[in-house]
Amino acid sequence: MIKVKIISVDFQKDFTSKGGVCYKQRQSVGFIKKILVPFLREHKIKIAEIISDYRQPRPGDKGDCCHPGENGYESEIPEDVKLKNIWIKCMNSPIWVRNNIGLANKKPGLPYQDINYFNKWLETVIGKPKDVDEVILIGLTVDCCVLCLAQELNWRGYNVKILEEAVDSYNGGTIEKKQILDNPPLANWANKISWKKLRSKLLE
């Protein structure tokens, strides 16, 4: 039996809902909410989740969104289909954290890297590379945070795949997404997988 793990990245309302700071119309949002989530619920499959606290200060990145305590920070992944141990990052790469991360009433510290902490989270929630056949990534965006996670996982020895119906580029264009999925740099660290193929694997 193939052991598959799924990780959702930044599927938060600032990216997914009208009025969100980083909102664009993206086809993957409807797919995840209307097709993937009901399937996961029906088959009692739980997925891991990474979300972001993108408050300033963030040297090198002027973006300011996903404020804890505000609507844009909220995840669109329902509680009943995700694991409780959620990873919170503050830069595009998941290894970047900060003091008071995710705390609405606390002033956020400067971003810093905590590789050991992230490794422990991976081993606890996903498992070691030798114990997992495939790690499937979904969420936003495939040209930024999903890409960064794919790199980190690949460098650690995981077999990484991107569920093509469940990701989008920042701009939301279908042609752009296809180009990103089919070519380097993303193709250096992850292969795409269709929902048809993943569904069959999850049902084995």
Oligomer: single chain
Poorly predicted spans = none
CA-CA gap between termini: 7 Å
Output the radius of gyration. Answer: 16 Å
CATH fold name, please? Rossmann fold
Helix content: 25-40%
Compute the number of strand runs.
8
Q: Quick check: average pLDDT?
A: 97
Strand order of the largest sheet: 3-2-1-6-7-8
CATH class: Alpha Beta
- Order of helix and strand elements from N to C terminus: EHHEEEEHEHEHHEH
CA-based shape: globular
Total domain count: 1
* Percent of residues in β-strands: 15-25%
Count of individual helical segments: 7
State the CATH superfamily name: Isochorismatase-like
- Quickly give the CATH architecture: 3-Layer(aba) Sandwich
The biggest beta sheet is recorded as: 6 strands, parallel
Secondary-structure-based class equals alpha/beta
Question: How is this structure best described in words?
Answer:
The chain has a single domain, classed as Rossmann fold (3-Layer(aba) Sandwich), CATH 3.40.50. The N and C termini lie close together (7 Å). It contains seven helices and eight strands, in the order βααββββαβαβααβα. Helix 4 links the parallel strand 6 (134-140) and strand 7 (160-168). The protein is α/β, with parallel strands linked by helices. Helix content is 31%, strand content 18%.
What is this entry, summarized?
The protein is an alpha/beta fold and 204 residues long. Helices cover 31% and strands 18% of the residues. The termini are close together.
